[in-house]
Write a structure and sequence with these properties.
Blueprint lengths: L3 E2 L3 H8 L19 E2 L6 H9 L14 H19 L2 H14 L9 E3 L2 E8 L2 E10 H5 L6 E5 H8 L3 E8 L6 E8 L5 E7 L4 E2 L5 E5 L2 E6 L2 E5 L15 E6 L8 E5 L6 E8 L5 E8 L5 E5 L9 E2 L6 E7 L2 E6 L17 E5 H7 L6 E4 L5 E8 L4 E7 L2 E10 L2 E7 L6 E7 L6 E6 L6 E5 L5 E6 L9 E9 L5 E9 L8 E4 L14 H8 L4 E5 L9 H5 L7 H16 L8 E6 L1 H12 L6 E5 L18 H4 L6 H10 L14 E6 L7 H14 L3 E6 L10 H21 L9
Parallel strand pairs: 34-35, 34-36, 36-37, 37-38, 38-39
Antiparallel strand pairs: 1-2, 3-4, 4-5, 5-6, 7-8, 8-9, 9-10, 9-11, 12-13, 13-14, 14-15, 16-17, 17-18, 18-19, 20-21, 21-22, 22-23, 24-25, 25-26, 26-27, 28-29, 29-30, 30-31, 32-33, 33-35
Helix pairs in contact: 2-14, 4-8, 4-15
Length: 739
């Protein structure tokens, strides 16, 4: 198939001012034909037929910085922004969202290092952010005095880079030397540079790892473990490194000594340091042979010894070191000893790490916690005297404190707010200091300090950003196609009369749980304007442990889609909304979910939003990190059944030329080096060619979040809520019937 532009892209850009301004729709006239002319054989119907037949893959849209691809994106941006930003509600939504996102009243969440509390902060004056610290006493005052260690805005200006903070890894016990992660524009590939906290400067001739997907871990002040994707010969098909190397200060990175090597077919290999309160540290290479399976290799202290494969389940996750015990969770049923007990998937277990390191043999396995069918283990962290664990029970949280003595584990509950989501923010293994966050749909976040007596003391609270008076939260269930009951939360005004505009959000993949949480932006933009919000806990997530996730893997994925369909149908059946008033939103894997909803059940929706999505399931494994997700979705080049199933659900391959589809808003980011922007571009191009109602916005900056800073994030969400108001509220005003 051939394509051509009606004029050169350079001429088109010059005509509408794209070369000189960001695509904000203010300085350039809208080109009604979008400047795009197609050959006769690339008419919408012919293009769709060619895609259906596997003869056209629109690979030109996979050229991330390709002139044609970016030209298409910019012209679509102009159209979307012209429609949405001209709406008088847009600016109000934007300003109110930005107020929330940049507010100085937000909780400054911290991590504890060496008895000090560290925070990274962005606001209106600090778009790139401040890396800063304070004392425990100052933080407890509620108005901490911050000591700024690095001003990333000043750094970005001095180096003329759009630096986006990616975190820090510091060497204890003094935490003076840190490896800082910075990306230019928000991509996953990042630069890592050594920083001296005391000197407040990057170390001259210090460790610097050029931009790459990888990681590092400290051995000592002169030695790092590194995994980089700098050398194509040491890079997996997913784009990650498969070799871990020991790098000594003062030597070129090219001379770093390989201490462990995996395979190009692995997802990736990463180094890790596990350390407990007495300073004992173990160094591990994490080899992920697939997204969910792998081996943990204990790295030796000297070059003469070989790495030891830890005898853990292939589907497991080390969580913490506490009192000599390595605590890990399992994602599969595990019988470590023939004839011995079988531990169920989702259990938290432990073993003696020193004994394992000495012998390489599996020591006695201890049970920490075994969830029931409606429970799952959440965050885990160790203080000096307790192992803290969040246990989710029917998608609400409890906090437990475990101790290890006399060869076994005991626990006691920590009294915490009920019917809320709890997450452990940070814990200090040198003391009993820990902080946990508590929130709900209508309850702003409150940060609590965990005391040595295992009580929660309020430390800080976020402001209430929207008026929740008269609003209620209910948890309901819908019956999926196979009879499984799917829980969902509905947040609405108690005084509603009749069906209401409703936004349904879900994710459904990678064992990621969707828990109740407070969103000032959503509350202001949607709930206060009369909308109802629904969060669906469909399969594919981790709300009820590994089995809930694994029920929807590969060719079983239709269960996940059926779950969301069941929730949507239940909302309509119970009169909460109608199909023209119901919108669905999701991002990344959730973008695939909403793309499937668009093509499988267009009759259910008044609007669809697909954010940074996967949409071409015939080529997902060939694009950027896509190969790493085949364990989740399937192996289209290796398994005919999986390929056929992926073809049957792939949104790009299942659009009907004359189908009756709801309006869709597709968003992505040029800088997203995780989910390729080509996915979103392809569906947008096809729908545009077919004349289906579609808006497309591509953020030229920003990574997988599609926003490199808070101002861009405010713009994105305001575009989305304006779209939802135009489609679910304006078009259905006064209507109650289904279309």
């Amino acid at each position: 198939m051939m394509r051509r532009w009606g004029m050169s892209l350079t001429a088109a850009a010059a005509m509408i001012g794209l070369a000189a301004c960001t695509p904000n729709g203010e300085d350039a006239p809208v080109n009604e034909t979008d400047g795009l002319v197609v050959e006769e054989d690339l008419s919408g119907a012919a293009l769709n037929a060619a895609i259906q037949a596997g003869e056209e893959h629109l690979e030109w849209l996979e050229e991330v910085e390709g002139e044609d691809a970016l030209g298409f994106a910019r012209l679509q941006n102009e159209r979307a922004l012209a429609q949405l930003q001209s709406d008088p509600r847009y600016q109000t939504l934007h300003d109110r969202a930005l107020e929330v996102l940049e507010s100085t009243d937000r909780i400054p969440y911290v991590g504890v290092r060496g008895g000090e509390l560290w925070n990274f902060w962005r606001d209106a004056q600090n778009r790139h952010g401040l890396w800063r610290k304070t004392t425990v006493e100052s933080y407890a005052s509620g108005t901490p005095q911050w000591d700024v260690v690095l001003d990333v805005d000043a750094l970005a200006a001095a180096e003329e880079k759009n630096w986006v903070w990616g975190g820090s890894s510091c060497l204890g016990p003094d935490y003076r030397l840190c490896m800082l992660t910075l990306s230019d524009g928000g991509s996953d590939a990042s630069v890592r540079r050594e920083f001296d906290v005391e000197a407040r400067a990057f170390v001259e001739d210090g460790f610097v790892i050029p931009q790459t997907k990888g990681s590092s871990a400290w051995i000592d002040e002169n030695t790092l473990l590194i995994a980089t994707a700098l050398d194509p010969d040491e890079t997996t098909t997913s784009g990650y490194p498969f070799a871990v190397k020991r790098w000594t200060r003062g030597t070129p990175i090219e001379e770093a000594e390989t201490v462990f090597s995996g395979q190009a077919s692995d997802v990736g290999v990463w180094p890790a340091r596990f350390e407990q309160a007495d300073g004992t540290a173990y160094f591990v290479a994490i080899q992920r042979e697939s997204f969910f399976e792998g081996v943990y290799w204990l790295l030796p202290d000297n070059a003469q010894s070989e790495p030891i494969a830890l005898p853990l389940p292939r589907k497991s996750t080390p969580q913490a070191l506490f009192d000599g015990q390595m605590i890990f969770t399992t994602e599969e049923d595990w019988a470590p000893v023939e004839g011995g007990p079988t531990y169920p998937a989702g259990a938290a277990l432990s073993l003696d790490m020193a004994a394992l390191a000495e012998t390489g043999e599996l020591p006695e396995v201890k049970t920490v916690f075994v969830p029931d069918s409606r429970q799952s283990v959440g965050s885990v962290a160790a203080t000096a005297n307790h192992l803290l664990m969040v246990i989710n029970d029917n998608v609400v949280s409890q906090l437990e404190a475990f101790t290890y003595h006399d060869g076994g584990w005991t626990s006691q509950p920590v009294e915490a707010p009920q019917n809320a989501s709890i997450s452990i923010i940070t814990a200090d293994d040198q003391s009993d200091l820990a902080y946990v966050n508590v929130s709900g749909f209508l309850t702003p976040e409150t940060l609590y300090r965990v005391t040595g007596e295992l009580t929660l003391e309020p430390a800080m609270s976020a402001p209430a950003w929207f008026d929740a008076e008269g609003m209620i939260v209910e948890q309901r269930q819908a019956r999926s196609a196979d009879g499984t009951m799917i829980p969902y939360f509905i947040v609405r005004s108690a005084g509603t009369d009749g069906p209401q505009p409703t936004l349904l959000y879900a994710y459904g993949g990678f064992q990621v749980s969707m828990n109740p949480s407070y969103s000032g932006v959503m509350g202001r933009s949607w709930l206060e304007n009369g909308g109802t919000y629904v969060l669906a806990n469909i399969r594919g997530g981790g709300e009820f442990g590994p089995a809930w996730h694994q029920a929807g893997l590969r060719t079983n994925r239709q269960r996940i889609f059926d779950d969301l369909i069941a929730v949507a149908e239940d909302l309509i059946r119970t009169g909460e909304t109608t199909a023209p008033q119901l919108g669905v939103m999701g991002g990344s894997n959730g973008g695939l979910l909403t793309g499937v909803m668009y093509v499988q059940r267009p009759d259910l929706w008044g609007a669809v939003i697909s954010q940074v999505p996967l949409l071409d399931m015939m080529r997902f494994h060939l694009l950027l990190a896509g190969a790493s997700w085949q364990d989740e979705y399937g192996f289209p080049d290796e398994n005919e059944d999986e390929r056929a199933f992926l073809r049957s659900i792939s949104p790009v391959h299942n659009v009907e030329t004359d189908g009756d589809y709801p309006p869709i808003f597709i968003l992505t980011s040029t800088k997203d080096d995780r989910v390729h922007p080509g996915h979103a571009r392809k569906l947008a191009f096809l729908l545009d060619a077919l004349g289906h109602e579609m808006l497309y916005y591509e953020n030229i900056e920003g990574g997988h979040s599609a926003a490199a800073n808070l101002a861009e994030a405010a713009k994105r969400v305001s575009l989305e809520y304006t779209f939802l108001m135009q489609t679910l509220m304006d078009r259905t005003a006064g209507e109650t019937q289904e279309r």
